[in-house]
Structures are given as C-alpha cells and as structure tokens.
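User: I'm curious whether this sequence folds into something compact or stays loose and floppy. Could you predict its structure so I can see for myself?
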Amino acid sequence: MAGFRRSVWAAYLLGFALGGFFDGILLHQILQWHHLLSLVEGVGDLRAQVIYDGLFHALMYVIGLAGLILLLGARQELRTLPGSGILVGSALIGFGAWHVADAVLSHWLLGIHRIKLDSPNPLLWDLFWFVLFGLLPIALGWQLRNQAQARGGPRPGAGTAASCLLVAAMGMGWWAALGPQEPRSAIVVFPSSVSDRAAMTAIAETDGRVLWLSGGIWAVTWNERMPPAVALYGRGAMLVSGRVLGAGCLAWLKA
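Assistant: Here's the prediction. I'll summarize afterward.
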C-alpha cells in the first residue's frame, strides 16, 4: 500500500465524509431521529441544535475537500493501481470508520446523541447501525482491497472509481446543502440579531406564510412553489432547511 498512499488516504477521507453526510442527511434531515447534540444538557433550543448540525456538515465539507485535493493530486498513481478495488475498498473502510467512530464516541463515550432517541431500546439501534454501516463496510472494503492487491500490476478501472467517488462526494455535499426538498414548505432559522418583525417581513416578501415560530425557528409554507433558498438567505436567514415528510413533520419538530 505504500506506493498508493495518497490515493488510499484520499479514498479514506472521502469515504469518511460520505459516512458523515449519509448520517446527517438521513438521520438529521429526513428521518429526524436525532440532532448532533440532542442529549447535551443546555443545548435544548431547536435553533442551537440546527446550527450545530450545520457545523457538523461544515466539518464533513472540510474533510471531503481534503480528500478531493488528495485525489486530484494522485492522478499519476491512479494509472498504477491494480484496479478499482483499492479505491472502492478504501472508501468503504472510511465510510465504516465514520460509523464506528460515531458509535464509540458520540453514542457511548460522550453520550451526545443516540441513533433513535424515542426507541425503548436505544442500544439496540446503536448496535444495528454500528454493525450494518460500520463493521460490514469495513470488512467488505478490506476484502476488496486484498483481492485487488493479490491480482497485482496496473489494471483499468481506478479512474472510473475515482470519478465515481468525486461524483458521490459532490452529490452528497450538494444534497446536504440543499434548501427545501419539498417545494412548498421549509424550516427557516434567523440569527438572534434579526428581530421577529424583520424576520416576518423577510418571509412576507417571498409570499411565505408562517405555520409556527419557536425560539428563532420559523416553519414557513408557500401557496405556490417555494422561491429559491437564496431569496431567504439574502434577507438575513441563517439556515433554510428542506423537509420531505409533510406538514405533520413540522409539527413533530416543533414539539
């Protein structure tokens, strides 16, 4: 592996970032089973929780960007790789490593959140996620790498695998940064420096209607298709978060 160090580390970092984006998009945004700091005392305000989720995604962007830079710098290495298994296997190991690290640190040592907070047995969900998205990808990635190394010699496929990793990282990053995923409603967060009157004016200027307000978190709906998120960012919004689960989901978030 010494001869492919840059390529391997690039795949590790991209896989790790993809693991973080996967959890953030699925668990924080779509299923909404928890936030990053759901169990941290003193961070009960929903606005603070959403902000920390955003900081978490920002960290994944930094890690993913580091992986992209390494991968672009390893273009010459790609021609000597023994097939795509090195990159794909390393990315799977990175993906699984994120979930192992998240389980050990976030769930069990620090206790800042659990996979499914409202479950009568949170440990069961933690272990299920740990095995399915942590240990299994690592084992599969290790096997793919070993098979590629055993074949030896440069083989085609590494360039395609690198391109797929780039597309996956950029796609997940784009999805994580999306505004509303459902065209008529969104959660909008304004900073504390923006008064409720100013926030209401900003929403009204986009023809939005407020469903409810809680601690700087605004649930907004539109009669027609929602305007681009930039329209709200340009009026002082700090975060515009799409939802895909319908109006009942907004009511659940408010609670």
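Summary: The chain is about 60% helix and 10% strand. Residues 243-255 have pLDDT under 50 and may be disordered.
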